[in-house]
Amino acid sequence: MLYKLRIIVVEDEYRILNSIVRKINSYDAGCEVVATAAHGREALQLIDKHRPNVVITDIKMPVMDGLKLSEIVREKYPDIFVVILSGYSDFQFAQQAIKFGVSKYLLKPVSGDRLIETLEEIRTRLRKVDSRINNTIWISRVIQSNTSDLGRLPDKKCYYVFAVNFFNLCYDVKDNALNSEYSRFLEPVDWSLILNEFDECNWFVIDDFAVNRKIIIISLTDGSCRYAENIAASIMNRFKIYYKGIPINICYHNGKIRREDIWNYSKRLRNVLENSVIPAKPGIYQLEKDENAADDTLCDIASLQIKEVAKPLAGRFRYKELEAKLNEIFSFMIARDAPQRQVTKIASHIIKFLEYSVENQNGLDIEELNELEGEFFRILSISQSAEEIIDSFREIMSAWLMQTYEDITDLEFKKLLLHYVDENYNSINSMKEVASVFNYNYTYLSRMFKELTGTTFTKYITLKRIEAAKQIMSDYPGISIKLVGSKVGYTDQHYFSRMFKAVTGISPSEFKVN
User: Using CA atoms, how far apart are residues 61 and 37, in angstroms rounded to an integer?
Assistant: First the structure.
């Protein structure tokens, strides 16, 4: 999650747009396409909302082209990387792109390997930038201590470092609403109460760049005999006493370290938490044991279920079963204590699967659903129970599929209604008979049928019967007119003849002769 690339793709050709998104999604969990746009003006609104790391844009687009977009992005968002994709190899475009601060200029069609190589270069550059920035912030933001400032720590003492994460992992460190929610709980934390047993030592509590994560440093004299495992357990017990109900995760390292190793160890502890924290569940992790313990088995099982079970259900428009299956897959991850990193990956996989696989007759409000998605990840970051997380996911599934249910149910009923009439045209005499079969209001069903066929029920039945009669007489020239009429639903031969002539302009006898 630390160096996850949030990407916006800007391309006015839908086929190319989908191809780029698929290539990015096939990369790994470290890349997320947070939005797509068809032109520069739309992209600027999305950039302001999502604050991505990367914007991948075509050059030639309606409303606002990629070069103008790049110029504005450079001016308003200098920390965003812009990648130009274009079929134009003219050097003039490349010159302008460089002028506007574009990071890469790639010619279409760009291969998946080339695109991924570019994203990895950007990720590496972000790592270096974040390392410099966060190191400075980390050293300067001591929020509480029982001694002098951190910069004056003695070189010859030994140190323990602990990373403490409150609630769950923060899905977006720039989310102001989420940060406010964290602060509401964390600002009253009295660290002197939590760490008072270490008053004979020097201790510091430092803000990490995620609001809900803190770094604790405890300095010891060389002769002190304390075990990091016991210190971590003591800190956890204090939190359980004074701050009940908040899921807290702590990561520690074995043994004492030197002053110059504090920064490196703090990064490693943070990474363990980001790979190991289980949503809504407290835990204590040891660096040496858990640093390389990641297991993606649960994620692989869930992904296979989406591909092998959920996808066919979507293809057959069985959306109620689809919703149940997707909720089952997500609940499976939560029930088996999947790390939040995997839960987030599967939730994103499911949401993207729905966005690209579920066809809605009237069109889904993608903007509204994006907001629901963001709200879900916000809830995931702050939830105190697994049930709350599962319920929130069910709500977003319902929001995605509710309108589809209504549309598909309506569509399927119309198909069923028309099929029933087509199969039974020779025995149905009125719409009231059909309404009684389907237990529908007669007036409502008549109106629906006219909207569906463009004509009244009576006229539709008449045309259907006459067409069938013409086919019968063509296939069996010697058949009697009375028998033809009875086969298509007319017991009165004379009435059949009148209706036939009204529709075709000739009598059944004349039709047979011709």
Answer: 11
